[in-house]
C-alpha cells in the first residue's frame, strides 16, 4: 500500500489520489513533524492519534493503526514534497490551513519549539499552498489553546 501511494505520487500518469491515500499522507506528515526535532515524544504520538481520530471519525485503535502506517510511510519517504502534494491535490485550501494547524499541534505538543520544527512548518505550509499569514494564524490559534 505504501509503495502504491509513492508510485501514484511520482508517476507521470498521476492518478487522482484516494481518500485513503490522503489520510496516509497526512498521518506521515504529522509523524514527520513530530520526529523533526529528533525526539518522537509520547505527547506527540497521543496528539497525532487524537488529530487522526477527530479528523476522520476513527476510534482509538483505528487512529493508532493509521499513525503506525504513517510512521512506515514517513520512514520510507525521501522528502516531504510527496506528502504535501498528496494533501494539496486532495484537500481544499480551508482544510489545508487546518492541516497546518494540526502540524503545529503536534510540534507544540511536547512544549518545545525547535528551529528544525519551525523550518519544516514554514516549508510545509508553503508546499501546501498555505500563505504565511494563514500559517501564522494557525500557529497562534494552537498556542492560544495551550494556555
UniProtKB/TrEMBL annotation:
* InterPro entries, per the entry: DjlA_N, TerB-like
Q: Where is the Co-chaperone DjlA N-terminal domain?
A: 23-140
Q: List the Gene3D superfamilies hit by this protein, alphabetically.
A: TerB-like
Q: What is this protein called?
A: Co-chaperone DjlA N-terminal domain-containing protein
